[in-house]
From TrEMBL:
Native species: Streptomyces galilaeus
Domain HTH marR-type as annotated: residue spans: 14-146
A Pfam family hit: MarR_2
Alphabetized SMART domains for the sequence: HTH_MARR
Protein name (record): MarR family winged helix-turn-helix transcriptional regulator
Amino acid sequence: MIRNDEEPVGHNALDRVTWALRRAELAVQTLKEQRLRPLGLAAAHYTLLISVHADPGLTGAELARRLNVTPQAVASLVARLENRGQVERREHPRHRHVQELHLTDAGREVLRAADKVIADIELQITGGLGPKETAQLRGLLDRVADTVRED
């Protein structure tokens, strides 16, 4: 049991860089969800579509590893997008039990519209920062990623 005079976390826990990163991530994610909703998409759908666009033929397992989600989560997203006619599964040329993911024409069309939404969010963010701060932020975020990966 925690008494009122005990601190369950450090006194500056909400001032940490990790918390600032999380707040920014949540704000951007919320905006993506709001702006993609009129297209009938969630941010996860956009992420899957652009990943398959960038690397046609990905398998569900490869996609799950790249997106850091479970294979079951990918399977559910793929099924939803497949039912909408936006992605299709094709048999792997050498491994008959493996299915590759590919965008359909409808998938490319919705991805174009969704990417415009994401590009507009990017412009909103970079416009608020300006070119110099945008470059600084990108550099700092790259350094954060590199620093975390080293451990």
